[in-house]
Amino acid sequence: MGHIGDRLIEEGRRKRTALVVGLDPDLRYIPDAIRQGADPETGEGAAEAIYAFNRIVIDAVADHVVAVKPQLAYYEIYGASGIGALERTIRYARSKGLLVLNDAKRGDIGPTSAAYARAFLGDGPIAGDMVTVNPFLGSDGYMPFIEAAETAGKVVFVLLKTSNPSSGELQDVKLDGGGALYMKLAEELERLAARSLGTHGYSCVGAVVGGTYPEEARAIRAALKSAIFLVPGYGAQGGSAEALRPFFDVRGEGAVVSSSRAILYAYRSLGDHWSSLSEAEIGRAIGEEAAGAKEAINAVRGL
Ligand SMILES: O=c1ccn([C@@H]2O[C@H](COP(=O)(O)O)[C@@H](O)[C@H]2O)c(=O)[nH]1
């Protein structure tokens, strides 16, 4: 039976895209027409503003992306109403035929990870199709997610080599024998990924590999062939389209590239008057930026 990894590949073919747009709504950068007086400091009215903004983003990018990736932190700031905005956003994205990847970066002792897995990969109100997982606690921290993904036919992206500047402080630590910690985890993930290969050769086990580390990606791809890579770092963090080549397989598949700020706030480059732009102008700028990113990524995929 096919799983969400298969759907990612199939939707990517149908729409000719490997792009995922991150939904990291920051009220400070949301124009007045949408913010409608919501206060970035107190958060009053924030949930409505976030949901209104996300709807505009989703409508603008739906033809250019395989999935949206809500970043949980931006919703948790506002407590119950923020989580409510996340719930509504997930429903809206699905109504537009998009897959949902919760960027939650969870991971804990076994029973707590199992509860997180139920929350994000089950049938509950904030469950999506995919979730990011922090493996720092070890296998009893990440296995409940992998088992839940296998059961539900969903996908878990395990943090492997992250895009941030200090990711090497721990992830690159050399182990006895000389290999880096992230390579040891890559080898372990390949063993686990083999348990749930889908129609297109990819698994319920995915990996986060930063677009800012193409050399590391080359080595990881050689060891970890069965995992779809989630690739953040393109755009606002300085990762270029050209650097994305080693993340993809020979068919130009097997990776999805996420971009948040560069697309969400594209209208800010229209000038100082960005805060007074209309909803239509905002949607147009976001849609054009997403279309441009999709094509730039497609060029390195050989499409
Ligand atoms: O290694 C990682 C893992 C996750 N992220 C998340 O992706 C987005 C990136 O946002 P941009 O605006 O495109 O830089 C954000 O939600 C991060 O939490 C990451 O950047 N790197």
TrEMBL record:
Pfam family, one: OMPdecase
Top-level division of the source organism's lineage: Bacteria
CDD domains, A to Z: OMP_decarboxylase_like
Residue intervals of the Orotidine 5'-phosphate decarboxylase domain: 18-270
Catalytic activities: orotidine 5'-phosphate + H(+) = UMP + CO2
Enzyme Commission code: 4.1.1.23
One term of GO molecular function: orotidine-5'-phosphate decarboxylase activity
Enzyme class: lyase
Keyword tags: Decarboxylase, Lyase, Pyrimidine biosynthesis
The keyword Isomerase is assigned to this record: no
Biological or metabolic pathway of the protein: Pyrimidine metabolism; UMP biosynthesis via de novo pathway; UMP from orotate: step 2/2
Keyword Lyase: yes
GO biological process, one term: 'de novo' pyrimidine nucleobase biosynthetic process
Coiled-coil blocks: none
InterPro entries: Aldolase_TIM, OMPdecase_type-2, OMPdeCOase_dom, RibuloseP-bd_barrel
Protein family membership: Belongs to the OMP decarboxylase family. Type 2 subfamily.
NCBIfam families in alphabetical order: pyrF_sub2
Protein name, UniProt field: Orotidine 5'-phosphate decarboxylase
Originating species: Paenibacillus methanolicus
Gene designation per UniProt: pyrF
